[in-house]
Design brief:
With 225 residues, this protein is an alpha+beta fold. It has 1 helix and 12 strands. A 3-stranded antiparallel β-sheet has the order 4-3-8, with no helix packed on it. The protein has a 3-stranded antiparallel β-sheet with strand order 6-5-9, with no helix packed on it. Strands 1-2 form a two-stranded antiparallel ribbon.
């Protein structure tokens, strides 16, 4: 009957009433009973007062045992979706530049994949929980993303623009680490640096002149007194 959980033993069925909050998850999706049971009747902790998994949470635990509910958290080695929270990847850290970003989004030029699905996880409709992702560079020259052994990647596979068709920095050029790489001749780079240095020196002179006039004028007034 609805609201009861029955078990067969030695040819006899033993039935008990399903009680939300008794620290024993009974039923599940198959009988439309408890999805979780964390031992209380509070909302907002992952398992609702009706013993349903709340959005943004994943709960684990076998039937007849207390559920353990945790928020979907980037960097915990579980790629998960629950409610409005969905990770594209989770490689077990929150570092940038390794394929899976600090926000658990797949970075440009990388592919991430997970081999295993967590079988004891329960969540809201359309949830998923997979094991840690492994991310690797796509190694595609000309896709704008410098990965693997590429020295540069300016978004094309042309020679003569500083970054060659094999994504190597061409002789006489330097390339920055923008997306895509911006490559200029060494001469142009040197000229740019000299102009920036000159501009900085002029700014310093202006500041020096300002303070000199300010304090110099003050001394003249003191001398007059």
């Amino acid at each position: 009957e609805a609201g009861f959980n029955c078990k067969d033993k030695d040819g006899q069925s033993t039935c008990s009433r399903v009680e939300c909050g008794d620290r024993k998850r009974q039923g599940g999706h198959e009988t439309d009973e408890e999805e979780c049971d964390d031992g209380n009747d509070k909302d907002g902790d992952g398992c609702s007062s009706a013993c349903k998994v709340e959005g943004g949470y994943i709960c684990t635990g076998a039937l007849d045992f207390k559920s353990r509910c945790q928020q979907v958290r980037c960097g915990d080695s579980w790629r998960e979706k629950s409610g409005d929270l969905e990770e594209q990847c989770d490689d077990g850290n929150t570092n940038e530049g390794d394929g899976c970003s600090a926000a658990c989004r797949i970075e440009g030029g990388y592919t991430c994949s997970s081999k295993n699905k967590r079988t004891n996880a329960v969540g809201p409709p359309d949830f998923f929980s997979h094991s840690r992702d492994s991310c690797s560079p796509n190694k595609v020259c000309g896709d704008m993303y410098r990965t693997g052994e590429e020295e540069c990647d300016d978004g094309n596979k042309e020679d003569g623009d500083g970054c060659s068709a094999s994504c190597k920095v061409e002789k006489g050029y330097v390339c920055d680490q923008a997306i895509p790489d911006q490559c200029v001749t060494k001469q142009a780079k040197k000229q740019q640096e000299e102009e920036e240095k000159k501009k900085a020196e002029e700014e310093e002179k202006k500041k020096g002149g300002f303070f000199s006039n300010m304090f110099g004028g003050k001394k003249e007034k003191e001398g007059e007194l």
